[in-house]
Amino acid sequence: MTAPLLEVRDLSVVLSRTERDLPVLDKVSFDIAPGEVLGIVGESGAGKSMTGVAIVDLLVPPLRRSGGTITLAGDRLDRLTPRQMRRVRGKRVGFIFQDPMTSLNPVLTIGRQLTDTMRRHLPVSRSEARERAISWLTRTGLPNPARVFAAAPHELSGGQRQRVVIALALCAEPDLVIADEPTTALDVSVQAHMLQLLRDLHEETGTAMMLITHDLGVIAKMADRVAVLYAGRLIETAKTQALVTEPLHPYTAGLMQATPAPDETGVMRVRAIPGSMPGIGAAPSGCAFHPRCGRAQDICRQTPPPLADAGGRAAACYFPLHREAQP
Amino acid sequence: MRSLIEALRGRPGPICAAVLILLFIAYAFVVPLFSADPFSMAGMSILDAFSPPVWMDGGTAAMPLGADDQGRNLLTAMAYGLRTSIMVGGISVVIGLVLGGALGLLSGFVGGRIDAAIMRLADVQLAYPALLLAMVIDGIATAALGRGRSNEMSIAIVTVSIGIAFWVQYARTIRSSVMIEREQEYVAAARVTGRTNTAILIRHILPNVMAPVLVIATINLGIAIITEATLSFLGIGIPATYPSLGSLIRNGNAFLQSGEWWISVWPCLLLVVLVIAVNVLGDHLRDHFNPKIRGRS
Amino acid sequence: MSGHEVLTLSSVSKAYGGRASLIEKLFGRQPKSLQAVREVSFTIRKGEVMGLVGESGCGKSTIARIAAGLMAPTGGEIGRAEKTRQQMIFQDPFSSLNPRWRVHDIVAEPIRTHRLRPKNAVSARVGELLTQVGLSEADGAKFPQAFSGGQRQRISIARALAGEPDFLILDEPTSALDVSVQAQILDLLRDLQARLHLTSLFITHNLPVVRLMADRIGVVYLGELVELAPTDAIFRRPRHPYTRLLIDAAPDLDAKDRSLHPIPGELPDPSDPPSGCVFRTRCPFATEKCAAERPLLRQIGAGEVRCHYDLDLTGRELAA
């Protein structure tokens, strides 16, 4: 096995309060191999966006990183000075945000934003940057790239803007792209285009991707592996196929049953998980999911289950589902 | 009230300001209960005219801050003056708030021609300084009612003039808040339920647009007090024969050159401290109730 | 049939703009108008749930607002059953509840407005409603800010039920919620539907959700109703190419078949819609006739389709 590109170990983030710090992310560990797409799944407040933001050190006070190591291709990102970190962002780690309206500078032309990014991170001349920018706009499937190059963000449609955001994240040829809900603000038809584009560019450039989303459908189509977050903890990781067919953690299974889908006979099924995810600082003792779990026993209420690795997949559960199916 | 206490918790500056304002109010309204009106015959004693503050040569303990040219005890005279200033300021703010509030609600909710008419009127008014406008209104009142009018009438005219001079700010603030609120889905929900426009405006929208204008009102209180003082100082507000901070300052102004500085300096000082206190409190409340700034300070 | 219609829309249209501004008058320019809804007709019968799907900006929310009486159409007619009490549930659980009102007063408002209960029975009724939607009577004393998005949507549902509606409009009621919370709200709505036999119009962009909730589904594209059929028929045998492409476009949970099915092309500018059939610029089957002639909404099989052709779209690979 090749060495991982990104190694995150025991990453913790807290919300600083005068009285005490509240845990937002609790010792989250995962790897991303070169060229791999890792899906990060969870509901709002689970900490999935926080994970991406914490990696590139963009946490805004009162949030702060309280522990753990982040290693990107052998370099400890958690030890970098803010100045060094700025060189990592954009150059080595690209970021695609959810909202295409706010992630572009409204007063600069698309071309200016692309060439600025490239000239900051790559040894290219002005004319070279311009050429590359046009080529990126072409690759993202934008009609009339020369016109888009000269356009201001507000002159483009939502879908076009999101294509530009993708080009902007990839143009400095990063090793890793963190895509935070890249299609959530988009309509179904635009979403499919955007996923197709992300997939094409991913295959073309070989960049690794961290795809943060709440949409299991997007995960099923895009991710090689999945990490599921619940109340700031990583509760399950597995290859995508294994996760959607045989989830080990009851929460993962519950999340899939909660997505309305037809069964074999075409009848729509939906099953809700009772209760709600605890808020920040309100996690119960033991397994954070135990109050909502039908399989919970005394031990679940007392000690948080470790993320037990079993044959390439892991689940933080004492009584996982599909145990029988495991060899 | 509870949210006001909540807003002040752990903030020494605004707490000091609030305490100071309460002390001034107590001073302005309690002292006149126990002393004769310095502007009546009983309150004057010509023998004590120009009596300096107690620590200076010739000062007496009975008049710790000294006396003016008519022998009025400045400590009592200032309480009477402050009382007038606070009342004129407070009532004029209420007039501006009610007038501006009503016009703003109407403008923002009805929109169209009514909105355009009200807002153009506001634009025209904004082209004149508030002070000038108050002078014009005062002038019109004088022309209409003649010169020989009572103190009470003068005070009423000053109060109304200042009130009218400040409606625009309230109207604009309320209007823009109303325009945001009327698009909220809770308004649509009330509509679907069958509530009338009046009910929606009064019961649903009004409570949601009050917080920002109440904060503006606090800040405007300081401005209104200064405006009153300025008008009185210029001699077109409250007559020199009636106590207000402005008329006291004006009265003392004549003696600044001749060494009797205390006659105008004390009321000036009181005015400055009062307005600073009101502004500190108002600024803090504005920041506190503004969700965009909240949490940063 | 007659007497069972709760709401009938006949050829309802809504255009925005179109009134010339001063500058446009001065320069003799034609004002720009936007046809948000164009000749939409459908009937909702007592006890049924009618769904409307479409992408953002297609006009489905405008149709909802017209149906709710919040907006007047610029063309066509709306027929309502005598004395229909309507209620509406909105998308945004944060802006749909007045932040200055206590939950009790929010839920009591429709009861008080329509005097549905004697004064002394209002409190008991509010408590009953809060319990019915999975909250507690004590929650009535709190302000909406004390609740999560899902709980706020429950309060909205309680408020709607308080009005004892004959007709309920739900405008994207679960779109702002997380999957697991959405499932809870859908469960609650289905349970209420089964018990109270509500008549409702359910608007969403989410096909699985509308498939779960609706008896009949209307598909809206660029302000037009392009297909209207029973839910089962829409999914088993979609007849409009847009319906079929929309069904395929949403990624499902199948990780083995990872193909994506984007709808070809981009949405045209709504203020300058294509001639003829509105979908022709993106339709794989478009012909010259589609550009020349606007298709009528015509009856085919169990439903109605606005398409010149009777296409068999089952089992064909359509997407680009």
TrEMBL record, chain B:
In terms of InterPro entries, this protein maps to: BP-dependent_transpt_permease, MetI-like, MetI-like_sf
Return any one Pfam family short name.
Answer: BPD_transp_1
Q: Which residues cross the membrane?
A: 12-34, 86-106, 126-147, 153-170, 213-241, 261-282
Query: Which residue intervals define the domain ABC transmembrane type-1 in the entry?
Result: 82-282
Q: Which SUPFAM superfamilies match?
A: MetI-like
Tell me where it resides. Answer: Cell membrane
- Keywords assigned by UniProt, alphabetized: Cell membrane, Membrane, Transmembrane, Transmembrane helix, Transport
Q: Which domain of life is it from?
A: Bacteria
Membrane topology per the entry is: Multi-pass membrane protein
Family from the record:
Belongs to the binding-protein-dependent transport system permease family.
Task: Supply the PANTHER family for this chain.
Answer: ABC TRANSPORTER PERMEASE PROTEIN (PTHR43386:SF26), OLIGOPEPTIDE TRANSPORT SYSTEM PERMEASE PROTEIN APPC (PTHR43386)
Under what name is this protein listed?
A: ABC transporter permease
Automatic annotation (TrEMBL), chain C:
Secretion signal, residue range per the UniProt entry = none
Please provide, alphabetically and separated by semicolons, the GO molecular function terms listed in this UniProt record: ATP binding
Its principal location?
A: membrane
What membrane topology was assigned to this protein in its record? Peripheral membrane protein
Q: Which residues form the ABC transporter domain?
A: 7-247
- Annotated coiled-coil positions are none
Taxonomically, the superkingdom here is Bacteria
Its name, as the record gives it, is ABC transporter ATP-binding protein
